[in-house]
Structure formats: C-alpha cells, structure tokens
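Human:
Class, as today's exercise, you are to examine the entry below, and be ready to discuss the fold:
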Amino acid sequence: MKMHSHSRRIVWGLAVLGLLFLLVAGVTVIRSALGMFGGFGRPAEPQITQAFVLERLQDVAKLVATEMVLRDVVIYEQTRFYSTKRSLLVVTGRVSAGINLKRASVSIDQAAKRIDVTLPPAEVFAVEVLSVTTYDESSGLLNPFTPEDRDVIQQRIRTQLREAAKQSRILEHADLSAARALREFLEVQGYTMNLRRGLNVIQPPG
C-alpha cells in the first residue's frame, strides 16, 4: 500500500493562542508579587521563589502556541491477487503544537536575579481531521475495500497531516512563540529569564 501527497496548501491561523492569556496572567503575577513583598516601612528586596514560578507554569500546564490548517491530496493504493484498489482523497486538517509546561524545570539565581527555565522540545498536541472528500475510488472483484482499509486510510491521513506540519516548521514556530510568551510571563520584579533546551534552543529576537 502506498500513500502520496500532492498540491499541499497550508494556512496559518490562530498562531500564538496562548500569548494573550499568558500576558494577562503575567499582570496578575506582578500584582501578586507586589502584594507579597510590600508592607509597612521600607519594603524588603523582592525575591521570586522556584515554587512561585513552578506554580505559575502549572497554571498553564500546556501552552498551545501555534495552530496550522493544511489541505492535502492523498492517494491510497493496495494490490492483492493482481487486483489494485485505489482511492484519491482531498483532506483538510488542523494541527496544533506547543510546549508541555508540566515537563519544565526551573532554577533561580537570586544574586543575579535570573530565572533559568529548561523546557522540553515543542511537540504536536493534536491533529484534527476537518474534512475528507473522496474524488475517485476503484477496486477489483477480488480486492474490494474493507473496514480495515478505511481504518488504515484514517490513520495514514492523520500521520500525513502531522508530518506535513512538521515539514512546514510548526515545531520551530511553536518554540519561538512559547519562548516569547514565557519571557513576558516571567521577567517580573527585575528578573531576567534564561531559556534552556536540551536540543535546538530557540531564543526570540531582542
């Protein structure tokens, strides 16, 4: 059985879905920190603890940073008993990717006022098949389409959409968007954020 892809068309939409939520949450963090460290007389030097940062990260356990809509032409073929069945389909799907913040780790250098955040690589969170249209389908007497064929086709469609999104750099875009959002979220009270990755660290410009 074979699967081909032709005439791929990609539409970026709703990129950086978590940014607005994180920016609002960042304002809440700043207000909470001000209330925590403020008091009568001369205020103490503000400090952000590891538990404080981890708690905020867990509040947004999964950051869906990037969403992409793709359209593909898929050809399914399978030959048996010298008889070939073939189906040509046009599929549209939505793929979302981002950073799983539950897997992040944090260390804080109070003297340098620096927050070191180690993030896992971006990953595809979901593949949603929006539509499947069959334009041509043929089979032989000894090789008809079966429910198993339909299951294989559905699985291959999802796999193909996932791989097409990766080839279109959805993971790199999610890395960049998440890094920018987290910087806005964590750089409070004079602290700076140092983002670390095991592989392919991507820092936002500026």
In short: Confidence is low (pLDDT under 50) at residues 13-27, 29-42, 199-206. Strands lie at 2-12, 62-80, 83-100, 105-109, 114-119, 123-138, 192-197. The first helix runs from residue 19 to 37. The longest strand covers residues 62-80.
